[in-house]
Amino acid sequence: MSAWFIIDKRSSENRNPFSDDLSVIHPFKRHNCKYQATYRRKRISVISKEANNISRAIPTLLYSPLKYLSDKENMMGLKSWLGIIFIGATVWLASCGQSGGTSGKGKPERVVMLNVSYDPTREFYREYNPFFQHYWQKTHGQEADIRLSNGGSGKQSLTVQNGLKADVVTLALASDIDALHHSKSGRQLLSADWQKALPHNSTPYTSTIVFLVRKGNPKQIHDWDDLVKGDVQIITANPKTSGGARWNFLSAWAYAQEKGGDAAAEQFVSELYRRVPVMDAGARGSTITFTRRGLGDVLLVWENEAHLALQENPNQFEIITPSISMLCEPPVAVVSAVAKEKGTEQIAKTYLEMLYSKEAQRMAARHFYRPTDEAVRAEFKTRFPDLKLVSIDETFGGWRKAQARFFNDGGVFDKIYRPQS
Which of 22, 40, 399, 408 gives 18 a disulfide partner, CB atoms 3.0 to 4.6 angstroms apart? Predict the structure, then answer.
């Protein structure tokens, strides 16, 4: 008896099982293939017949094995049935290998981990993940399937609070990770002191906010004051959903506050947002609105995102570095409740620790994130212009206070923003 298989070999790259902006990265660019074994219909009746024959023969086989095996027809049937068992075992073992079976020592051969991140980190983690996968395979003898979800930082935080099983979060600001301590489900997904787990308040790289203008800088925008002159139109994301947009807001506020106090800052920021024709949910959406849709005269944007726009659109835009901006500190954390539940605590912790390695720090710098490692930062000094960087803790009392004052429902932003009709 023979068995017939139809093998369905499909690549799972670019599947989006978690969100609209999820990319799946597999170890060493190998395809994760799903095998489906299907017998031809005409064989099913044969299998059923053999099964019935074997079930009827079991008593004879047990009590008079020599008598049963001496019958040629019985032997043929037994061989067929053993063939079916062998094929079934082979298919089962193959499927176990693809879905993360266990090794002889009981450790899964493959571990799956999800990093929920904010918008502009896509390119960086697409390079970092294969680097980490190679490291994990070499040091632990285990394949790592690292999945990456990107979106507006505030929106991503809400998604995790609402049940997305993130092993780690790498978000735009601390308040979005703080929210996981008291998630909307009432479950504590991580401890209140999560920022103490890693160096620099769990911030492996930093950034700042700059201006992206069109080639030739036709509106002559050089600093924050120029944003509210003439008919300048400004593109920025929604600070209710985007971490980068909250950094934009606070950068503008810090500039005006230094010149004239809180009253002057509120007036300045109110005028700035009066010039915003549309607000996307995330920083990447705002970049697309400015660079591809052609809206606005200036984009308030992460420094690394501005450089990416230059690379993708040569000779179309320029970066303007203002005199003052925020020291943007996008932190990282293990979602300890999820990692413990999934058994991924060790790989999740190591995944974040490796962000501080020399290799990862250089990788971050190549993607225009400012390294926290002093030696690596010195290597890339010419890549990052000097400017006055304002600390969230020193100027606004930390993210918890800033979030409550400016961005919670009924906060300053709700009072000053009026959508354009």
Answer: 22
Structure token pair of residue 364:
């971050």
Give the helix/strand (H/E) hosting 75. Answer: helix 72-99
Predicted confidence (pLDDT) per residue in 370-407, tens digit: 999 999 999 999 999 999 999 999 999 999 999 999 99
Q: What is the pLDDT of residues 267-317, one digit of tens each?
A: 999 999 999 999 999 999 999 999 999 999 999 999 999 999 999 999 999
Predicted TM-score (pTM) above 0.85: no
- In 116-131, which positions are buried (b, 16+ CB within 10 angstroms) versus exposed (e)? bbbbbbbebbeebbbe
Q: Are 246 and 382 in contact (CB under 8 A)?
A: no
Q: Provide Rg for the chain, Cα atoms.
A: 29
Angle 281-287-291 from CA coordinates, rounded to 5°? 140
Q: Residue 368: pLDDT above 70?
A: yes
Close Cβ partners of 289 (under 8 Å, ≥ 6 residues apart): 235, 278, 280, 295, 296
Helix (H, G, I), strand (E, B) or coil at 296: coil
Helices 358-366 and 122-140 cross at an angle (nearest 10°) of: 160
Tell me whether strands 332-334 and 22-25 are parallel, antiparallel or unpaired: unpaired
Cα distance between residue 170 and residue 333, in whole Å: 7
| Residue 403 identity (one-letter amino acid) | Q
